[in-house]
Specification:
mainly alpha, about 350 residues, two-stranded antiparallel sheet, 18 helices, single chain, elongated
C-alpha cells in the first residue's frame, strides 16, 4: 500500500513537471533554426582586424524578454544562407520584412516606411556624402538597441470603457494588448523621457564641436546644444520636467525620423511652419511669438541691445546678493566690536550688552 502511494506521488510530480515544461514559455521561441546552439556560449567570439575582441554571445533569457523576442534570427540576418555560416560581413538591414503579422494587419511587419522617412531626413545617407560623414550619421542602432519589453501599466490608460465595444467581436487577449499599445503611443511621440532625448542627441553628435566643425555646419548649429541648455526649455528639462519641449518636440513630427534642415520647406522649424510647431504646446501663438529664437546666443556684436539688458540684469542680481552679504558682514563685525556674542541659542543669534554708549 505504501509503495503504491509513493508511486502515485512520483507519477503525479512527474506529470506536473512535464506539463510545466511544455506549457511554460520558452526564451528561444523565435530560434527556429537553433542559432543558440552556438551563440548561447559566453566565450564565443573572435579577435577582429584591429585587435579588439568581438563577442557573439546571446543571453537567451534576456533576449527572450526583449522587443524582438518573437523575431526569427534570419529575419534580420537574412544574408546567412547556411549553417554553420561564413564570417559576417554585412550589417543588419532594418528595412527587412519580418515573418510576423501584427494584430489586424494583412501583411508581414516591416520598418521600411520608417526607413524611407529616415532616408529623406538630414540624418539619412546621401549618395554625395563623404565616407566620414556617412560613418558619423546615426543609423537605426545608434538610437535603438533591443530594449527589454515592458507592458504598459493598466492604471495609466483608461481603456476599459472604450475597449468593451471592441470585445463585442474580438477576443480580449489580442485586442487588449494592441489597444493598450496604440493608446500608449498616442500619449507622446516617443517612449523616451525628454531628458533621454536631449542626452541622445547631444552625447556623441551635436555636443561634439570637433565633429560638427569637420562637417562645416553653421555657427548656429555649433551652438545648438549650449543655447538650448540655456533656454527656458533646456532649463526646465534639466530640472526634471516631462512637459517642456525637447529636441524631437520641435524638430520632428509624429513620424519622429523626419528631421530636416530649417531652410527646407517641409521642416517643422521652417519659418512657415513654426506657428503650427509651437501650437503643439502653446495655445495662443501668433507670428511674433513664433519669431522668438529658441537657440538664441546673446552676443555683443550680434544683439547689442539684448546683450546690454542681459548684462544689466545679471549685474543687478549678483550686485543685490553680494550687497546684502556685505551688509550682513559689516553688521556682524560691528556687533563683535561692541562685545555682543554671536550664539545660536534660545531663539536668538546675538547675546550680551553693547559697549557702545547711547547718544
Amino acid at each position: 500500500m505504501e509503495l503504491t502511494r509513493i508511486l502515485t506521488r512520483t507519477s503525479l510530480f512527474l506529470a506536473i513537471l512535464l506539463i510545466c515544461a511544455f506549457v511554460a514559455p520558452r526564451a528561444d521561441a523565435a530560434d527556429k533554426e537553433n542559432c543558440l546552439m552556438c551563440h548561447k556560449y559566453r566565450q564565443i567570439g573572435r579577435i577582429d582586424e584591429t585587435g579588439r575582441k568581438k563577442s557573439y554571445y546571446v543571453n537567451e533569457n534576456i533576449y527572450g524578454n526583449t522587443t524582438h523576442r518573437n523575431v526569427p534570427c534570419r529575419d534580420c540576418h537574412s544574408y546567412i544562407d547556411k549553417l554553420p555560416h561564413d564570417p559576417v560581413t554585412e550589417e543588419v538591414n532594418c528595412a527587412n520584412e519580418c515573418h510576423i503579422k501584427p494584430p489586424f494587419a494583412k501583411e508581414n511587419f516591416s520598418h521600411k516606411k520608417i526607413i524611407d522617412v529616415y532616408n529623406k531626413s538630414v540624418h539619412g545617407l546621401k549618395e554625395d556624402d563623404p565616407e566620414e560623414l556617412k560613418s558619423a550619421k546615426p543609423y537605426c542602432k545608434y538610437c535603438h538597441l533591443n530594449p527589454i519589453y515592458t507592458r504598459v501599466q493598466e492604471d495609466r490608460i483608461s481603456f476599459e470603457e472604450t475597449l468593451s465595444r471592441c470585445l463585442n467581436c474580438h477576443e480580449r487577449k489580442g485586442v487588449t494588448q494592441a489597444y493598450k499599445h496604440i493608446t500608449h503611443r498616442l500619449r507622446s511621440k516617443t517612449s523616451r523621457s525628454p531628458q533621454q532625448i536631449v542626452q541622445l542627441c547631444s552625447k556623441n553628435c551635436h555636443a561634439d564641436l570637433v565633429l560638427m566643425k569637420r562637417f562645416n555646419v553653421s555657427h548656429e548649429s555649433l551652438e545648438a546644444v549650449a543655447t538650448y541648455n540655456e533656454s527656458i526649455h533646456g532649463k526646465a528639462i534639466g530640472l526634471g520636467s516631462t512637459e517642456a519641449a525637447d529636441c524631437v518636440s520641435c524638430h520632428a513630427t509624429s513620424a519622429i525620423h523626419d528631421i530636416y534642415k530649417k531652410d527646407e520647406t517641409h521642416s517643422t522649424v521652417h519659418k512657415e511652419n513654426l506657428i503650427n510647431t509651437c501650437r503643439q504646446c502653446h495655445e495662443d501663438v501668433n507670428e511674433r511669438f513664433a519669431q522668438i529664437d529658441v537657440h538664441s546666443a546673446i552676443e555683443p556684436h550680434e544683439k547689442p541691445l539684448l546683450y546690454s539688458i542681459n548684462f544689466g540684469l545679471t549685474f543687478a542680481f549678483y550686485g543685490s546678493v553680494l550687497g546684502l552679504l556685505a551688509l550682513a558682514l559689516i553688521e556682524t563685525i560691528g556687533r563683535k566690536k561692541d562685545g555682543i556674542e554671536w550664539q545660536i541659542k534660545q531663539g536668538t543669534s546675538w547675546r550680551g550688552v553693547s559697549k557702545r554708549k547711547p547718544r
